[in-house]
Design brief:
157 residues, 2 strands, 4% strand
Length: 157
């Protein structure tokens, strides 16, 4: 890919992308999954991504929920891998357009993984904030792609 030195606008957009990818990791500490209990006397199941990692070697509080989530549990690593990959590409790639391409792919994968793994029935505020942040990242990335096409006034002179 063509290397092009970044100007102030592209640098600010890249830093904003990095901050939003770090916010995605923060949203993993919020309640990501909520499953209401059909029995009103029992409390529903609420878990963060890190809570799900805690259940990886142990037992779930309820046997039925444990059976349901034991097959999905290894897939929860994707909620951490996607923002980490996006962050490192945005932080380390300063001159190429690769960070924008990877950022769009990470945003699409993040939205797709939240909607398929968590599903709309069990979505909680952590996954909702993550969805909104992925949409914001995709708009900022599209703006960064357009900012790359515009010539800088300082290089023109």
């Amino acid at each position: 890919m063509l290397k092009k030195p970044e100007n102030k606008t592209r640098k600010r957009l890249r830093i904003t992308q990095c901050i939003l990818f770090l916010a995605q990791i923060l949203f993993c500490t919020f309640t990501f999954v909520q499953i209401p209990s059909p029995n009103p006397s029992k409390v529903g199941f609420y878990a963060t991504v890190f809570d799900m990692f805690g259940y990886l070697g142990g037992e779930f509080p309820d046997a039925a929920q444990g059976a349901a989530f034991s097959s999905v549990l290894p897939v929860f690593f994707i909620f951490l891998v996607i923002p980490v990959v996006g962050f490192f590409f945005c932080a380390l790639d300063k001159e190429r357009n690769m960070k924008n391409i990877v950022s769009i792919i990470c945003s699409l994968l993040g939205v797709f993984s939240i909607l398929t793994i968590v599903s709309l029935n069990f979505i909680s505020y952590g996954s909702l904030l993550a969805l909104l942040c992925y949409i914001l990242i995709s708009f900022i990335t599209a703006f960064a792609m357009m900012a790359r096409l515009v010539e800088d006034n300082n290089t023109k002179k």
